[in-house]
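hey so i finally got around to running both of the ones u sent me last week. sorry it took forever, my laptop kept dying halfway thru and i had to restart like 3 times lol. anyway pasting them below in the order u listed, first the sequence line then the structure token line for each. didnt double check formatting much so if smth looks off just lmk and ill redo it

first one:
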Amino acid sequence: MRRLARGSGVNLAGSLVAAALNLVLPVVVTRGLTAADAGIFFQTTALFTILLNVGTIGADTGVLRSLPRALALGRATDLGPILKVALWPAVALSTALAIVLALLAGPIAAAATAGDTDAARAFSATLLILSPALPIAVCYLVTMAATRGLGSLKPLVLIEKLGRNALQVAAVAVVVITTGSLSFVIAAWVLPYLAASLVVAAWTWATVRRLQAVAPEPDSSTPPSAGLAREFWGFSAPRALSRVFSVALQRFDIIIVGALRGPQDAALYAVATRFPILGLMFVQAIQQVMAPRISQMLALGDSRRTLELYRTTTAWLTLVSWPIYLISVCFAGLLLDVFGAGYDEATPVVVILCLTMLVATACGPVDSVLLMGGRSVLSLLNTGLALTVTVVLDLVLIPRYGITGAAVGWSLGILVNNLLPLWQVRRTMGMHPFGVPTVCAMGLTLVAYGCVPAVVRLLAGDGVVPLVVAGALATFVFVLGGFWARRPLELDRLVAAIRRRPGDEVPASGS
């Protein structure tokens, strides 16, 4: 728990900066480009993200599960072979995808722009720029996951959350100010992947060499690894589709909105989804630390500590994400004004999605628990069903209700993708996230960031001053309540772990 707390604290600090940068980026884009160009930017980067996850074939999740298991079982000699088994198929597939994307850029652009010829030409040009970067970004994604599997959070925080995001925002801002060209903006957005991938690859290789040099001789009671590729891809192959479905669940509706309603509506919808995604970044910060720990505990058969990690993690997820969702619901229109005139039309989208994310967060990192327990096929079925629900509802609702219909479709997909695995984890593993820490976290956050801002808005109306006052009062109540409930929320361990010097780190065997 101490190791989880320290890792989560460091990762949360990095996520705070990354969240700010990811909020600044769309502001720069929407204020520097036309609404049509901004919509194309969001559509093409969403498509790139989906293809990026197709290209990894689940290898990133595979290394995140396989590397900690190898270390826990004393098989440091398997680290290098695991990485080779993971990388080569991913590189081959992503290269093929890049070629196909370049060849089909024109037809894809025509289908995604609702018959707008000028927008289709701009869309096609951006795809030609993005396609060569796809294999590089895939290598980056897999090796970044490997650094976490090897027990280090520094690359994730320093390179991904701080370095690549900051470089991306800075490069896009400079290009927007100097040229205002959509093609140059896309190039500025994708080039930081190249620099980051080189640094992470070097870091991963050095870490593997170091761990193998200090590793003890393999336990004679543990049989030597055999069928490494079969074992790795037996887990990762189902996860490949599951990961694609999961990312498509977050991004594909932006593309559908553009295809059915045009790039301008895609821009409105994309900026509205930033607030749910903003909370999701903090959720992922804790999940990224938790997943390898869950894998280790399950490999050692320690169900008690696995359940403790699950429930405490869910409480912390609630504490860091619910404030964002609740404040966004109360002041959605005001927050959307930061993107420019007219973007407050997307207020219903923010309200619908943030209310949905409250339910999703309350389920905790349920898919990670399912995955680290080796049930990748169930995860695949869940995300496939959730994506199907989202796409079908989008196709039915968007033509009539526009971006509000898209929000309803995505919300129902999110609920399917969280409530169904919650039932499966309870049924197959005997676990659920609802305990004293979770109930305390929900109650505290609802009172502080739900009731207090609602009363302030009711009395003072919608505006910058009421927003600031509501935020300050809510934070005061939140901190006071957190201090009172610090023991059931495990906040003592979190604070102590963050304050602990690196040299005082508790070893894995004593955590």
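and the second one:
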Amino acid sequence: MFMILIKRSIFVVTIKILAGSYFIILPPPVRAEFSAIIEQEFSFNEQLNSEKYETLIKPEWRFDYGNNAQFVFKPKLRFDGLNRLSRATDKPENYSGINGTLFKNSHLDLMLDELYFDLELENTYWRIGKQQVVWGQADGLKILDVINPQNFREFILDEFEDSRIPLWMLNIEIPINDESNLQVLWIPDLTYHEFAEPGTTFQITSPIFVPQISDNFTLGQFVQNKPNSFFFDSDLGLRYATFYRGWDLTLNYLFFYDDSPVLYQQLEDSRINIDSRYQRSHLVGATANNVFGDLTLRTEIGYRSKQYYLMHFSPQIISEYRGVFETNEISSVIGLDWQGFDDIFLSFQWFQSYLFDYHSQVAAPRNNHIVSLLYHQSFENENWQFELLHLYGLDKTDSSLQLEISYLLEDNFKIWAGADFFSGDIQGLFGQFSDKDRITMGFEWGI
């Protein structure tokens, strides 16, 4: 429960998390601002059966305390009228004790989206609380943007800002000179990816991510093991950013638990028991961006230690490897953005990943290549907007295509219609949803 009250000369925030209550007492703000976004979206499948009827209400309060401090409070209310994207009535197990929904039933979720303080102390900038942190700028897929876990209830079709799960953390930015700064992150929030529930529209089925058990065996016991030490299991991140001779450069390091669990398998008679565990990893990465006239070059690279990939099912593989192969991985993306006309934006990206160690029974390819094309055009003084995002997997020959056209009726009211298409090998990242094409429409109203 969250309450914001003005009482005489104090500003009171009451936060109730599980069985505990935490009180923050502040002086009255110099200035207070309120805004809100209300979104309504409908979607239909190929047979024109309703897939989604969702209302999102996202209010936001900002309280300024002079030039050096600000308090931001952003709850979010989601109403799902159909329950085809989510069915659980309890808080999912991927959330830590200090995160997750405040209230949940079969149709309604109330959650604290973000709540943080911004402070400037001794020429350093502190953001303390529940927040999102973005590393990297790739469209559609992520290389370095892994600070916050993601909600995959709609696979990757949601905007990243809406699908990221905010975390409680300490975020400090330390200016080094006029063109460089150091970011330090301490993240004690042990929350991980939220995947689509079994039986819902975007349940993951690809053998790259889900063990495939043959007909002669049955699924036995499933045990989930999560890190539980507030201090020792925290994630730590460092990012050095600078501007040098026209280049925006960053060096990134993250010591973290991978947000996807490793599904170890054990054979017991004719049953396959699953031991789900989160594993530590080191991420070392860099970005380099520059503008050359109408062309922008974006590059991003990340090296991860101890990545775990599922192997094709067999009793021998389970006995020897527990169904999982460990390797180090390097991933990168090269992007070219072009804006030669005032109303057209084009972006091409090439994603690559490489597994240093490999086994012929690993379900994922050793070399994985995905290309993307983003086309955006505006019409009639930007009242009309059209956008196309196409992702194509070269190795599995599968793809995702997202189309949307929107119209700004008023400065604060937008309507849109779109479509999402999947095709290709059903074992691929996109092809697993080849029968999940849909049409969408909705509106957004800003207050």
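quick thing i noticed on the 2nd:
The radius of gyration is 23 Å.
anyway thats it, ttyl
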